[in-house]
Amino acid sequence: MTEFMIFYAPFIVLIGSIIIAFWAASKDGAVKDE
């Protein structure tokens, strides 16, 4: 299990950061439209 986390954690963090970046960008766009 520890090896699984060590191998996959960077990918999970990368995917999570991309999702957060898209969410923040869409929210920022909504703010600019107002």
Summarize the SSE layout with pairings.
Elements: H1 2-33
Features:
membrane; single chain; mainly alpha; transmembrane
Explain what you see.
Keywords: Membrane, Transmembrane, Transmembrane helix. Pfam families: CydS. InterPro entries: CydS. The chain crosses the membrane at residues 6-25. By secondary structure, the chain is mainly alpha-helical. The chain contains 1 helix and no strands. The longest helix has 32 residues, at 2-33. It is rod-shaped and about 45 Å long. 0% of the residues are buried. The mean pLDDT is 85.
The unreliable regions are: none
| Inertia-based shape | rod-shaped
* Contiguous helical run count: 1
Number of strands: 0
Mean pLDDT: 85
Question: Structural class, from secondary structure content?
Answer: mainly alpha
Series of H and E elements: H
Please report the distance between the alpha carbons of the first and last residues: 47 Å
Beta fraction of the residues?
A: under 5%
Give me the Rg, rounded.
15 Å
Biggest sheet statistics: none
Helical fraction equals: over 70%
